[in-house]
Every structure is written in structure tokens, then in C-alpha cells.
Amino acid sequence: NVAIGQAKGEFATGIDDDDLMLPGRVAALVAAHQERYALVCSGFFHERGGWRRPVFPEPRTIALTELLHYNLVGNQALVRTDRLCAVGGYDESLVACQDYDLWTRLVVRYGPALRIGGPSYVFRETAEADSITRSPRALEGARQYAHKHARLMTPAHMRSQQLLQAIAGRERIGARDLARLYATPTAGLLLRYWAATNLPVSRALRELWRGGRWSLGPGD
Fold it and tell me: DSSP character for 150?
């Protein structure tokens, strides 16, 4: 937020300290910018255990109703600097999901997001203790996000958010939870996570993930 407040450029974007930008990313995002979109993003590679697989590789427009089900943007985007300042930047009261919250507020104020085709970012998931992905902060941040934006959500959105919280908390999903957590936009994610948390099939699915044919990533 300090950097955003001091920035003199027309656009701002970011990179997490353990991730990678691929060549041409910034140029492609700037070229795709249009005023009618709140932000521009792209797909990314999810890297874990030495394996990479593409997430969100297809181009699309992301409306608020879709974004409230799960983060279809990713953890980085290109945004006009004045817009970042106008919405107050990142909410520092959140312990996680600060990016998801920021995209939501931008889309509420400025219209849908634009995702261009082709992954141009590498999200590295590590097993280190200070990784937010594997930290208890992930669950608390997911709860904070859902509470903050609850007024915008339908019952279906809330079911999707409950699923995201279950995943963040690494909870086991039983057969009885399928109906309780079902929402059409996150149905595939629900079924994959349910399968992965049941021992008889989890090993086989892990091998499929290693082969690049399956993932727990939201929406892919």
C-alpha cells in the first residue's frame, strides 16, 4: 500500500516474493487494458512439487456474480494506479485473501475484470511454514472475506464460500456435505476435493495431478 501510494505510473501490478513473471506478461496486460474493465489479469501456472500445470488458461470476462463464488483473477493483476488508490488499496485488516478482496471491490466499483488468454505468471506453492497457502491464516482470511462481502452474496455464493473455507482449513468432506456445499459454479471443485479427501481415491487422483490431468485449483 505504501508503494501504491507513492507510485507515479499509470498502472500498477505486483509479484509475490516466491513467484515468477514470465517474459512479456506486463506488455500483454497493458496492451489488453480497456477503461470498461476494472482490471486485467491472465491465467497462471500452479507449481507444486516440481510440477507445473496451467490454471485459468482461457480468456474471459469476469462479472461480480462469478467472482463472488471464487477468485477467478488469481493473486496478481494490472490495475490503474488511481483506481487502486480510490478503493483504498489492500485491506490490511485481512490476514489472507487480501488480493481476492481487492479484486472484488474494484469490480464492484468499476465493472467486470478481463482475463486474457495464456498463462504468464507462475504461482509457487511451497511446504514452508510461513507460506500463507498452508497457514491457518488462509482459513481465517477466507472467513473474513465471506463476512465482509456477505451483503453481495446469494445463498449459492455462500455455499461456494463455505467450500473454499473447508479447503483452506483442509477439512475432510463427507458424502453428506455434497448437497450442503453444492453450487453450480464450484460443483467441479467440490467433487474433486471430496474425492481427494477420501482415502480410497486420493492416491489415484494424486497421480493424475502429477500427470497434469487433474487439480484442486478453483475453476480449473
Answer: G
- Number of neighbouring beta carbons within 10 Å of residue 219: 15
pTM: 0.86
User: What radius of gyration do the chain's Cα atoms show?
Assistant: 17
Helix, coil or strand: residue 112: coil
Q: How far, in Å, CA of 156 to CA of 159, rounded?
A: 5
Looking only at the bridges linking them, the beta strands covering 20-21 and 11-12 are unpaired
Please give the distance of CA 191 from its chain centroid, rounded to a whole number: 18
Do the Cβ atoms of 215 and 167 come closer than 8 Å?
no
Strand order in the sheet with 113-116: 40-42, 113-116, 60-62
Is 62:72 a contact under the CB 8 Å cutoff?
yes
Residue 152 to residue 69: CA distance in whole angstroms: 11
Residue 33: is it exposed, middle or buried by C-beta count within 10 angstroms (0-12/13-18/19+)? middle
Q: Where is 86: in which H helix or E strand?
A: helix 81-86
The residue written with cell numbers 493473486 in the block is 75
pLDDT mean over 70-77:
96
Report pLDDT digits (tens) over 28-53: 999 999 999 999 999 999 998 888 99
